[in-house]
Specification:
Helix content of chain B: over 70%
Structural class of chain B: mainly alpha
Strand content of chain A: under 5%
Order of helices and strands of chain A: HHHHHHHHHHHHHH
CATH class of chain B: Mainly Alpha
Order of helices and strands of chain B: HHHHHHHHHHHHHH
Largest sheet of chain B: none
CATH class of chain A: Mainly Alpha
Radius of gyration of chain A: 21 Å
CATH topology of chain A: ABC transporter involved in vitamin B12 uptake, BtuC
CATH architecture of chain B: Orthogonal Bundle
Distance between the termini of chain B: 37 Å
Distance between the termini of chain A: 26 Å
Number of strands of chain B: 0
Number of helices of chain A: 14
Oligomer: heterodimer
Shape of chain B: globular
Radius of gyration of chain B: 22 Å
CATH topology of chain B: ABC transporter involved in vitamin B12 uptake, BtuC
CATH superfamily of chain B: ABC transporter involved in vitamin B12 uptake, BtuC
Chain lengths: ~350, ~350
């Protein structure tokens, strides 16, 4: 991935065009700056997520809690217990779910070539929701921990259906996803209207939250996340070519069926993981690729790493804001993420570059 | 006669003329079949129910003849419901068709752009936070739809209204409204929240009297405005630059059409609630049936009316002893049909949004 700009440099040098050379070098500098900036931002958000909350914990205590050999390490200490048992799981979940959302949004927008495509619109998040509702109302599952596998299976199944019927052709895929959403949403409503208890349990999951979940989910699902991220990385070059159209991509030697199969696999695993970790989080998957595109342009080889860093920045940032905004209480990350993501989306949409697309 | 003269000289024109005639025939066929279907279903809807009527007695009661019992059942119970289904379906579908063609995105419907979600949020806010009921809730829904559309408009406006900006900002607004809605539902008392959830699904069961009149008149006026504006719409599908080159005042046309569509959604939602996905599915079905990439406004309208009426009929009579709100059935009826249409044909034109 990082070698590709230098390959482009070699190309430019072969043509003997110093101007192109300079442009490529400029682009690479910019990319590295942006990437570094995002990483720093992510580090700050992670620290904030460990330190801030209903009870602010001194960074020294956080350090002492995290590092076994540090002076004053004492897991029984109240502050350190909060860090270890609440803040760390929450932060890890936010990091992983955010990464998954950033990557899945990028792949979906790339493969559908539709700027408003995201897991919600493609019927994947609704699929997860339907599975959770069915689990609650038919199987009597009651805890968020029990929801995880249903959410994952529902999302994966919905994504498979969308790709099977949509055959990964951009317009079809978008329409099939929307049609699937249109089938699932009323089914959810029907089940919820029938069963007040199920509604009572479902509505808290449906807001989307990082709290009250534990790390055993991560232990079970991390391989899926790794596979999804690797697939996203592998897709970067293909999606860049695909942006020029199916015909151009095919004529440049790309096997479109392989691209579509890889994209389907990436979307299934990533969307499943994200929904299982944090519930149906709106807007993060949509906003992140747009923001990344504003920063580094349309080349997916540059876009993907930036999106993978920006996803957790927004999700975890939303979670931290949600802990602070109402004194003594918490707003769920899903609600805050929508309010954090919307201005970013508006800013991107109002940018000059978008008008020409 | 002139056509004949031209025909003999330039063979290409004959082909174009023949293609155009075939297209017109197809449009007329789709619209005609949809309207006939809607008419037949309307008569069926008037006859079905606890008090079974023959079609003749039902139709006689429509024009004011027959027994008093028949008159009451038909004129006060069944006819308003049928009309509400037809009108709201036509309104949502026309609005969706306008959104999708003007914004050049097959997903750009009021459901996805946040106009319907804004209406739902307004109604749920009125129900749960303000404790209102009845007409006040409809008014809040109307306000919510307009407010959401206004927010999209203001935020997306930058030296004119660009399609992609409008769509992106609209999706953002939809998610913000949806998240707030989910949050309101999770904080309220569970029974009240369930009532509010019911409202967000949409139903034509109790639309009569003034609400029905407002819906009918509003739909008529707005459909007329659309007909006048839409003559300049076809070039817009070619892209802003081409349309401008052809002499279309792009921003003004787009603003006028979108404003009309927003008004259609607001009027229909205030009467029947945000009946889900009609605006998304009906135009998609109409376009597939037409098999061309045109706006298909008239066909969408007819398909929408047919869709909502048939969905309402199914919801009333499919499960004995249980009346399912129309908003639940529209998605369940329309979307599988759309999927079936989509799976049958390969995509020949990516331009056929």
């Amino acid at each position: 991935m990082l070698t590709s700009p230098s390959a482009a440099t070699a190309d430019a040098a072969a043509i003997g065009a110093p101007a192109v050379d300079a442009l490529v070098a400029g682009r690479r500098t910019r990319f590295l700056l942006v990437l570094g900036g995002c990483a720093v931002l992510l580090g700050l958000v992670v620290v904030a997520s460990l330190v801030l909350g209903v009870r602010t914990i001194a960074p020294g205590q956080v350090w002492a809690a995290l590092v076994p050999g540090a002076a004053g390490h004492d897991p029984a200490h109240a502050d350190q217990a909060v860090v270890l048992q609440l803040r760390v799981p929450r932060t890890v979940l936010g990091l992983l779910a955010g990464t998954a959302l950033g990557c899945v949004g990028t792949v979906i927008q790339g493969i559908t070539r539709n700027p408003i495509a995201d897991p919600g619109l493609l019927g994947i998040t609704p699929g997860a929701s339907l599975a959770v509702v069915a689990a609650v109302s038919f199987l009597g599952v009651t805890t968020p921990r029990g929801f995880v596998w249903f959410a994952f299976a529902g999302a994966a199944l919905a994504a498979l259906v969308v790709f099977a019927i949509g055959r990964a052709q951009p317009v079809r895929l978008a329409l099939v996803g929307a049609a699937l959403t249109a089938i699932i949403t009323p089914l959810i409503a029907l089940l919820l209207l029938r069963d007040v208890q199920a509604f009572d349990r479902y509505r808290f999951w449906a807001v989307g939250s990082l709290a009250a979940r534990d790390l055993s989910i991560v232990g079970a699902l991390w391989p899926f996340l790794v596979v999804g991220v690797l697939l996203t990385v592998a897709l970067a070059r293909r999606l860049t070519l695909l942006a020029m159209g199916d015909d151009v991509a095919a004529s440049l030697g790309q096997d479109l069926r392989v691209t579509r199969a890889l994209a389907a696999a990436a979307i299934v695993t990533l969307a499943g993981v994200a929904t299982a970790f944090a519930g149906p989080i709106a807007l993060v998957g949509l906003v992140v690729p747009h923001a990344a595109r504003r920063l580094v342009g349309t080349d997916y080889r540059l876009l993907t790493p930036v999106a993978a860093l920006l996803g957790p920045v927004i999700l975890l940032g939303a979670d931290v804001i949600g802990r602070l905004i109402v004194p003594g209480a918490e707003l769920e990350a899903g609600v805050v993420a929508a309010f954090v993501g919307a201005p970013v989306l508006v800013a991107v949409a109002r940018g000059r570059a978008i008008a020409s697309t | 006669m002139t056509a004949d003269v031209l025909d003999s000289r330039i063979p290409g024109i004959t082909v174009v003329a023949r293609l155009r005639a075939a297209r017109r025939r197809r449009h007329a066929l789709v619209i005609g079949v949809a309207l006939l279907g809607a008419l037949g279903l309307a008569v069926l809807a008037l006859t079905l129910g606890a008090a079974g009527l023959t079609p003749v007695r039902a139709l006689a009661a429509v024009v004011g003849m027959g027994e008093r019992g028949d008159l009451f059942v038909v004129q006060h119970l069944r006819l308003p419901r049928v009309l509400a289904a037809l009108f709201s379906g036509a309104g949502f579908a026309l609005a969706g068709a306008i959104f999708q063609s003007v914004l050049r995105n097959p997903l750009a419907s009021p459901d996805i752009l946040g106009v319907s979600t804004g209406a739902s949020l307004g109604a749920v806010w009125a129900l749960l936070t303000l404790g209102l009921g009845g007409v006040a809730v409809a008014a809040w829904a109307f306000g919510g739809a307009l407010l959401a559309a206004g927010a999209i408009w203001v935020l997306a406006w930058r030296r004119g209204l660009h399609a992609i900006r409008f769509v992106l900002v609209g999706v953002g607004i939809a998610y913000v409204c949806g998240s707030t809605l989910a949050w309101l539902l999770s904080r309220a008392e569970v029974r009240e929240a369930q009532t509010a959830l019911l409202w967000t699904i949409g139903s034509v069961a109790d639309v009569r009297g003034a609400r029905l009149t407002i819906l009918g008149v509003g739909l008529g006026v707005l459909a007329l405005v659309t007909a006048l504006l839409s003559r300049t719409q076809a070039p817009l599908a070619l892209g802003d630059d081409h349309a401008a080159a052809l002499g279309v005042r792009v921003s003004a046309t787009r603003a006028g059409l979108l404003l009309t569509a927003v008004a259609l959604v607001a009027v229909a939602t205030a009467a029947a609630g945000p009946v889900a996905f009609v605006a998304l599915v009906a135009p998609a079905i109409a376009r597939r049936l037409m098999d061309d990439g045109g706006a298909a406004l008239a066909a969408s309208t007819a398909v929408g009316a047919l869709l909502v009426l048939s969905a309402d009929l199914l919801g009333q009579h499919l499960f004995p002893g249980m009346s399912v709100p129309v908003g639940i059935v529209t998605g369940l009826v329309g979307a599988p049909y759309l999927l079936w249409l989509l799976s049958g044909r390969s995509e020949r034109r990516t331009a056929a949004l």
